[in-house]
Amino acid sequence: MTDFTLHDKQSAPAESTALLDVSINAFGMVPNLHAVMAEAPGLLEGYQRLHQLFLDSSFDDEETMVVWQTINVEHECHYCVPAHTGIAKSMKVDDAITDALRDETRLPTAKLEALRDFTLSVVRDRGNVNDDTVQTFLNAGFTKRQVLEVVLATAQKVMSNYTNHLANTPIDKPFQKFEWHKAD
Length: 184
Known about the structure:
Structural class: mainly alpha
Helix content: 55-70%
Radius of gyration: 16 Å
């Protein structure tokens, strides 16, 4: 496997140093994902921007986590599932939701289950989601805006999940206790 550098402000390309400051301000540290992404400043900047745009979407915290973790689990991201487990705790998302997402078991509400189903359709069908699936999502109480916001989250998570696969990004110490492996 190719070794990727976990950059800090001293080793990162000059274009990434201000971006690493953004990470430190947001998380109190440079997450290892950001340290790897710093190798390509455009990737790190794009990821940070998409992350903020999705946080600012019309989804509430529980729905945001359902979308993120659904994609992380589907992509079998060894780094993002534990990281988003910790983030879910900081966002005060119910552990029952987090556990159901990590374990791929039923979510507590039909609406959240519809959100997971739709997100999986977007990912698995690469955006070629049929009209009935979209209508089922809308009938569950979601909006056309949210159809497109799932696309936004998918773009963000492709950037992180694929980077983590390529770099085998080590899980940050605060999230190691949430280590995850896909159930067989």
